[in-house]
Amino acid sequence: MKIGIIDADLIGRKKHRFPNLACMKISAYHKNIGDQVTLLQDYEEIKNHNRVYMSKVFTDTKVPDGIIETPNINYGGTGFFYDKAPPLPDEIEHIMPDYRLYDEWVNRKIKEGIKPKELAYYTDYSLGFLTRGCIRGCEFCVNKNYTKCSLHSPLSEFLDPSRHYICLLDDNVLACKDWETVFTELKLSGKRFQFKQGMDERLLTDKKCDVIFKNSKWIGDYIFAFDNIKDAPIIEKKLKLIRTHTIKIPKFYLFCGFNHDDPDHYSKEFWLKDIVDLFKRIEILMRYECLPYIMRYKDYELSPYKGMYINIGRWCNQPSFFKKNSIREFVYKADGAGREDKMYASRRYLEEFEKEHPEIAKQYFDMKFETICEKSQII
To answer: Is the predicted pLDDT of residue 378 greater than 80, yes or no?
Structure first.
């Protein structure tokens, strides 16, 4: 059969730098049984294939109207079903991914001027899950229906010896009772690795810190998560623990724009508190010389302070700027040549918020990473 594979995120997002693991596994399965498989780079060729599989990770990725009703389309993934996404059949879930699926697309992008290092996840990394599941049940998360974390597959199931690095997509590896087995297996591979999702810093112990920071061949950032200001006491306790093991600078995902207490209710009071809580979390991370990375829940677009969420995200998610500038300096600096409209909007967002809430602006608009780090007695 002629099989088409559609990575909807690849087509529908302006910038996409990560392959779809389900697409690669489906491709491998069909190639193994003798089918002809093609990665479709638009929706025009669907009719020319016996069967087409379409997957997306992000819920806001646009798919043309009527596509999913096409008779030869099979679709899935969190982008379509969120926490209700059906799992792949075992014979597909536990197969070596087809790491050649994206080759033609990668070559085209390089010819268009994209730097090869920006496509590294397509070319240099083995991808997979060693564990699945989580213990937290966070209402906003696609893993909210899980109650535990357990081993999912051996590394050999998805390790391509020709690829230099390993990228793990595990939901909450530190919650797995067999976490030591996982890290031992990774160490024995001899390859550098990373966990792409934010690890659960609340579960760190001296032993886990020793393994992660001193006995692992890590590549890229150490990534954790600080999703709720209510977790500040335990987060700070673990930050102090981290600082007894390493001087490296971890990164923390900061989730915002979601009402943890009442997900169905948003008010101006909530939105203001959420902005303040976000600044509080950023300040805590500054004191322990850690970097924030802002993750906005889709409902932030409903906020009267939408512009502030955008400003904070731009400021924090560019470490070279964040390390040297307060948010006020970042917004006002003349580094927006050719983008005067956007720079004007950014200043307007900041000035309107400061006019309405001068006390909040006074406390947070001028705080700087390097200054707070220097003043902190903890680092």
So the answer is: no
Token duo for residue 259: 């009402």
pTM confidence score: 0.92
Alpha-carbon separation of residue 321 from 46, 240, 312, 313 (angstroms) = 44, 25, 12, 12
**What residue segments make up the domains of the chain, in order of their start?**
11-93
Helix/strand/coil for 275: helix
DSSP string across 280-348:
HHHHHHHHTT-EEEEEE-GGGGGSTTHHHHHHHHHHHT-HHHHTT--HHHHHHSS--TT-HHHHHHHHH
Q: Which two tokens stand for residue 302?
A: 């409903």
Q: What is the pLDDT of residues 20-64, one digit of tens each?
A: 999 999 999 999 999 999 999 999 999 999 999 999 999 999 999
Please name the residues in contact with 79: beta carbons below 8 A apart, sequence gap of 6 or more.
Answer: 8, 9, 55, 56, 57, 58, 59, 61
Minimal CA–CA distance to 291: which of 264, 330, 346, 254?
254
